Amino acid sequence: MPVPQSKQSRLLGWPAAAAVLFAFWLGLLASLLGTSQTLDEGVHVTAGYTFWRHNDYRLNPENGNLPQRVAALPLLFRQDNFVPAESELWRTSDKWGLTWQWFYQLGNNTEAMTLWGRASAGLLAVALGGLVWAWSRQLFGPLGGMLSLLLYVFNPSILANGALMTSDTASALFFLAATWAWWRMLQRFTVARVLASAFLMAALFLSKMSAPLIVPVVFALTVIRLVRATPLSARGFGRAELRRRPEQLAAFGLAAVCHAAIVVALVWGFHGFRYSAFSPALPEGAWIEAPWATVLNKPAPITLLERVGLGPRQREEVKRIFARERASQNAWSTAALKAVEEVKRNVFAEEQTSHLERLLAEPPPQFFPRTLDTLRRHHLLPESYIYGFAHVWRGARERAAFFNGDFSLSGWRTFFPYTFLVKTPLSLFLIIVLAVASLVAGISARRQSAKAGNTVATLYETSPLWVLFGFYWAAAIFSHLNIGHRHILPTYPPLFVLCGAAASWLGAWPGVGTERKRHYPPFARIAGIALCTAVALLTIEVCFRFPHYLAYFNGVVRPSRAYRHLVESSLDWGQDLPGVRRYIETRQPRGPVYLSYYGFASPAYYRVPASLAYSVISRPPPLQILRPPDGKAQEFLQDFLRREPEYDNEVVGDTIRNGDVLVVVVKKPEALRLTAGTYFISATLLQPVIQPTRGAFGPWNERVERQYQTLREVVAPLLSDDPTERRAALARLPAETWAENLSAHEYLRFRRLTTFLRQRDPDDNVGYSILVYHISADELSRALDGPPVELGRDILGDLFPQQR
């Protein structure tokens, strides 16, 4: 039942809400102007573009079909060049390579594409804000609705993620919308409400692979409704009212079946009503990065091979084949699958091969991947949708993370409570207290209505918000995926709605509210003043922090020190690359400038005048093996060296692969070395949490130190200024071995440097996410050549003794 509205409600109606939301949408886009894409955005919008344009679903299926389509929709009307279908990137499902070409190599206007995609994605945030306002207004009146809306539009986490081309805002929107629609259906059972709830539920399942969390939410809400045992109005089902609980339960069961049918139908529809993820109009492909055996967590290759019964000679031959294919026997990969096929052909007897094929066909041992494998074998859902769930399940079980100086592969129970504490404005905590006090005191606008009932009735009306908030928080606390505050974004909207209750304190002021002053306790005016002060402080703080909302911290942790507490999407998601260029152009630091960047944007596209050191984006490797065209090797090499001046024209080798002679080029010594200068290092890269598979994760330790010192000695000849010494060294080892050694040395050298830099504060920062260090020659020598400044726990060695 609507809350009674005062005369002032005309100023708080839908036109005012629409104006606030329009300004909010513009503010979202304004805060992102002058920023680069965050790490995942390009991949999301590229996938959505291929869904629309090619009816192909091989790219990024783990991140929600619907939000990726929304972000890509305006790009369909642009005349941008796209990667041709004959590219090898399609066959390998290389989402990163396709994204890189589309945005940075085909001459497209990256900034315009990004703006259009973000503008479209931001409409989801506008819709979420509208739902927050409408729900709060229904519960707490016009003042409550506007208060909730203001808390929403002035929340840094919403502003940081609202217009990003990712699935986080869509997840928050449809978790709230699906909960709201199911609850409305429980109060009045009509065809329209059942269908609305089902379609919103389907939107949730198309937006985020965490969607199954809605199941316990709707179950709990159904139980609450049945416990209340009031008659259920029913329209369109041949009954005017359902009075008995069994009748109501049967109706809700029928609605659940309808929901399941519509969810499944829309999932198929959004995947082209085709099982295969790969469009027949494009080259055949596979998920090379993580094959099915990987995402379904099937037993490791060596486990299955040993179960077949390997003899001593066979065991040695298996090792040789896996080494030749550069595959690990302890993990599934495309190379491991290729090695297993060769083992079946050339090592096993016929009976062993048959036994191995039976083992490979067995379902995974764990319940959830076994269920997904069943869905896959019987084609009960689209292939890419099943693969996406499997991919998320695998990643959520174990993920490298950093938290307050600690490192873990399984996360911490306190991670999300802590991020909520330090990334939520302090003024919001005061408003939360005032809202709870209002509900406890029973003076909300709902209580003032003669027909609203008592506080128990108010709790009943707000129960879907409490249930959603509680279940999602419980899931987050027990999650192993502790890589970003954004993963609890769906908990904020129900909180904002509930905070609308605090607006009731304003009813104690003359001219505000509908009841006489005597209905309010003496401290109500003080609470009202506190509420207005908190909202004002929130507004001032958010405007002051513009535009660095992704790196927002509330002062419990200072933003300039945040890199010691949280990284990745809680602080540094690759958003400040253009800021580096502006910093260099305005400050003009002395000496060489190096950039170590955690992001997927192109420093060359943004004209960043820095040498690219170790980063997560692709860059010219220390050594390359080139395949020149037949009869034109010399012309090809000269053209390459002219385009890539970092490579040494005096030191060129060759190698033979499959009977073909290939050219080997290596970077010049000055390009391989690090020198004193200014270093721009992404906060996420300062902490040793990225790429743990390379062996360095957590504190610098004795095992990594031994590896580093060994590699220093191995690569030293290639860092010499003497071309003769370099040519002789290049000829001593296979080119592939040199490539591995140089890459590993570069990685461990960077890790040793960051170990040293973590012992001191940065000299400056760019947007709080990229740290600036002015490093002298003495400091660099102590960092790379002196005794290690840290020898801590070998986390990987303890977890995986075979790494030692």
Which secondary structure elements does this structure contain, and how are they paired or packed?
Elements: H1 14-32, H2 41-54, H3 65-72, H4 88-91, H5 95-104, H6 110-153, H7 156-161, H8 168-187, E1 188-190, H9 191-205, H10 214-228, E2 232-235, E3 241-242, H11 245-269, H12 292-295, H13 301-308, H14 312-324, H15 334-346, H16 350-361, H17 367-377, H18 383-397, E4 401-403, E5 406-408, H19 415-423, H20 426-441, H21 445-448, H22 455-477, H23 492-499, H24 524-545, H25 577-587, E6 593-596, E7 611-612, E8 623-626, H26 633-643, E9 647-657, E10 660-667, H27 669-672, E11 677-682, H28 683-686, H29 702-715, H30 723-732, H31 735-757, E12 764-766, E13 770-775, H32 777-784, H33 795-799
Parallel strand pairs: 1-2, 6-7, 6-11
Antiparallel strand pairs: 2-3, 4-5, 8-10, 9-10, 11-13, 12-13
Helix pairs in contact: 1-6, 2-3, 2-5, 3-6, 6-8, 6-23, 8-9, 8-10, 9-11, 10-22, 13-16, 14-15, 17-18, 20-24, 22-23, 29-31, 31-32
